[in-house]
């Protein structure tokens, strides 16, 4: 709760005197309410909700200092004393000028560093200066209430413009992330249908990939883009060249499926569908658990040994249960213990006696080395999780070694899957 008292603040209002137009500002569909929960025992008092960013301009106004340079808050005039309307209107005008200055800076930065710049619609510097002049004129003429209302409306318009410039690259980045996901899925599909690494890589595709990446990097450099944008473009470019260079194997796989040529159209649609499910799962993570449980039933349709079916169903059911665990609890021991459990199961499966029970052939020497390498990386990752969690609890932050090692495990795992020979 936000409690304001002292000079310059408005006295408490009873809920029975709330005008109807104020009630309309809090539509129930947005989760806002003009009344307080019954457990608060404050039903007789008017409730005024504010955003966290609005507290900074309110405090600056009450103590008589300048608004913070990067403040993006809307001055909550409901907390200010109505006995001094001139002061309230002047504070609203100062809030409007401060937010407008930030919009000008954001617009100028994007204009100078963006090709084919498109300004925020319904907003221009000339029109905005006219609005500020009108607000200032109303303050001088004593029309304080009109000045406050116009200031509030202008600040909301400025905040919309700021959000537009801050998310200016969102559409391009979301499109790039979609391409990255699709190329990654194609790469995994290629690895599953033909695990052999490519014997030769198309030099033409390699050169074209370098040319496209170089042009893109020049474009990003001229736009003064953040350094992470360079990584965002490198990842899908590498995977796309790899997939295109081995597209013959994908077409060959579908060509061999004489009775299932419809898969050529079904598989891409399923890939897009699973991608959409993954996006929804970011907001409702329990969906991942349901998908894993459904995936566990897939084993019942396969012609594999009964013991392998049981292990598959039990494994997917156990992993799916993780998504239903509470978020706020400390599950670090559960994470690294699960990783150790996977490593133990992998080591057991490498033994000849266990593999014979599942009617599985013995792995080749190269496959055996790859499994051992992945087990080692898994155990090292478990130690990284425990070490990082301990360092954060001690207040020491993220160790530099842990940060570098985490990225090293990520890239080395990817490279080992791509280039290490399998001979199977």
How would you describe what is shown here?
The chain has 424 residues and is an all-alpha fold. It starts with 19 loop residues before the first helix and ends in a 5-residue tail after the last helix.
| Count of individual beta strands | 0
Helix percentage range: 55-70%
Structural class: mainly alpha
Strand percentage:
under 5%
What is the helix/strand order? HHHHHHHHHHHHHHHH
Q: What overall form do the CA principal axes indicate?
A: elongated
The tally of helices reads 16
Radius of gyration: 30 Å
Please identify the oligomeric state. Answer: single chain
Largest sheet data = none
Which characteristics define this entry?
about 425 residues; mainly alpha; about 65% helix; about 0% strand
Quick recap:
With 424 residues, the protein is an all-alpha fold. 65% of the residues lie in helices and 0% in strands. It has 16 helices and no strands.
